[in-house]
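Notes to self after the Tuesday call (sharing in case useful).
The group wants a holo model before anyone commits to mutagenesis around the pocket. I volunteered. Ligand is shikimate-3-phosphate. Logging inputs and output together so the record is complete.
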Amino acid sequence: MLNIYLIGFMGSGKSTIGKNISEDLSLSFLDTDKEIEERNCLSINDIFNKKGEAFFRQEEQEIVNKIINLENIIIATGGGLPCFNNNIDLLNKYGCTIYLKCDKKLLYNRLLADKKNRPLIKDFNHKELQEYINNLLTKREKHYKKSKHTIICKDLDTNKLLRQINSLILTR
Ligand code: S3P
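Result:
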């Protein structure tokens, strides 16, 4: 089976959902952020602080070039990964991409509760976070929309989402 790539904005649930699906289907799971943290022995926050975003994006590109050669893996991609260096085109060429589409309000609520480990948003107040999500999502959607499949994540019904993704994977 070709790899399955979960695509979407920060807070769209790629890692949580990816882990669950991989357990359901007894497949391996990989998280591109975790790979980059391990390669550099640094947290994502520290990589941004010490080495900068450009370095992080280069790391993402290297990870993409590595993982497209693998098979049978469910992969959670970082929220910006599909939007740089034509990464989304490569992922589409070699695997099955699924965009977990969440609306701005859902993203805002989730990210407000969990922003401290995300260097791009950790220092924002409520209003800044809201504006950031609005602007960045508008810019990034054109990349996310290139995914082969889109799943609308309206609520937190993880079981429903898992069933949808499982059936997408199994009917391929
Ligand atoms: C980023 C999203 C993060 C992580 C990094 C940059 C982004 O991943 O890769 O903080 O540019 O949107 P998650 O989407 O898993 O939070």
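Two things stood out.
The chain has one domain: 3-170.
Strands lie at 3-7, 28-31, 73-76, 95-101, 149-152.
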